[in-house]
């Protein structure tokens, strides 16, 4: 695919639906207004963007993320002690099997993440790829009758679905941490179809990771529709697969994507650091909002 060059920055799309590689930006330094605008624009257009050869320290990682919003601290996963906003995803420390299913991050929050910035610190020699799917394209590919049925419905998202006690309750301290997380984050409802607050485009906003039922349907109907949607989001036409190198950085729009961390590399060791950006409350607006993407990517 053709790359787009703007001054010193270059964006190369990875496939027609989702993903691009950005060159010409040093993420360890404070971003210029032009660089920040270029990243914002590329993120809206491509939904997940990648940067190679970016050896960020935890402090640099947090400083980078703060240029795009406030940071969230995960209630269960460990973090970097000297930089608590940076979540530590280390296979030597964490049970990461919950990432090996399609999910949108922290939708158990009333205001789920706007996005996340993931830095690869140690990657296996082979395996350990991550897949992203375009939830906007997935919704657009549904039949119009199904789109109409889903639009305006709500669904329940529950932290317990991805963080069960049998996997995250190995000792009394972990059990207490899990229980406190569930008390602080009771199940919440979000629209099944979410309107993107910037582009105005509708996107599916249910995932296997956290969505337990569609509230307006009975349990059998809900199970059937969710199964259909969970399988639909995985269609190759909507999906990008990224093979990590050490010091790669990925930045994705959590409002209109799902992702899946392939768990095929054990017993190799994999370490990733993640900064999660606080978002806003999801909503559904009937019809496409009168908004356009900014120019530049």
Automatic annotation (TrEMBL):
Q: Which cofactor does it need?
A: Fe(2+)
Keyword Kinase applies: no
Molecular function GO labels: metal ion binding; taurine dioxygenase activity
Keywords in alphabetical order, please.
Dioxygenase, Iron, Metal-binding, Oxidoreductase
TauD/TfdA-like domain mapped to chain residues: 11-276
Tell me a GO biological process for this protein: sulfur compound metabolic process
User: What does the entry list under GO cellular component?
Assistant: cytoplasm
Q: Which NCBIfam families match?
A: PRK09553.1
What the entry lists under PANTHER family is as follows: ALPHA-KETOGLUTARATE-DEPENDENT SULFONATE DIOXYGENASE
Family the UniProt entry places it in:
Belongs to the TfdA dioxygenase family.
Give the protein name, as stated in the record. Answer: Taurine dioxygenase
């Amino acid at each position: 695919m053709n790359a787009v060059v703007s001054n010193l920055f270059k964006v190369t799309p990875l496939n027609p639906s989702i993903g691009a590689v950005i060159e010409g930006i040093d993420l360890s330094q404070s971003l210029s207004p032009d660089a920040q605008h270029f990243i914002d624009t590329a993120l809206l257009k491509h939904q997940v963007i990648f940067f190679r050869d970016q050896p960020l320290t935890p402090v640099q990682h947090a400083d980078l993320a703060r240029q795009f919003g406030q940071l969230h601290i995960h209630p269960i996963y460990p973090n970097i002690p000297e930089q608590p906003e940076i979540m530590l995803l280390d296979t030597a420390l964490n049970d990461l099997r919950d990432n090996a299913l399609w999910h949108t991050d922290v939708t158990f929050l009333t205001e789920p993440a706007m996005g996340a910035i993931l830095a690869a610190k140690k990657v296996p020699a082979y395996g350990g790829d991550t897949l992203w799917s375009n939830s906007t394209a997935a919704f657009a590919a549904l039949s119009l009758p199904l789109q109409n049925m889903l639009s305006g419905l709500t669904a329940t998202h529950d932290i317990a679905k991805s963080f069960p006690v049998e996997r995250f309750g190995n000792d009394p301290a972990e059990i207490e941490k899990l229980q406190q997380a569930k008390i602080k984050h009771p199940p919440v409802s979000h629209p099944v179809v979410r309107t993107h607050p910037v582009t105005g485009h509708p996107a599916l906003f249910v995932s296997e990771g956290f969505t337990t039922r569609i509230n307006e349907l009975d349990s059998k109907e809900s199970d059937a529709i969710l199964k259909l949607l969970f399988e639909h989001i995985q269609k190759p036409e909507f999906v990008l697969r990224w093979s990590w190198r050490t010091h790669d950085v990925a930045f994705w729009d959590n409002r209109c994507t799902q992702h899946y961390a392939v768990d095929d590399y054990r017993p190799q060791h994999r370490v990733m650091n993640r900064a999660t950006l606080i978002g806003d409350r999801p909503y559904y607006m009937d019809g496409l909002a009168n908004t356009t993407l900014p120019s530049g990517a």
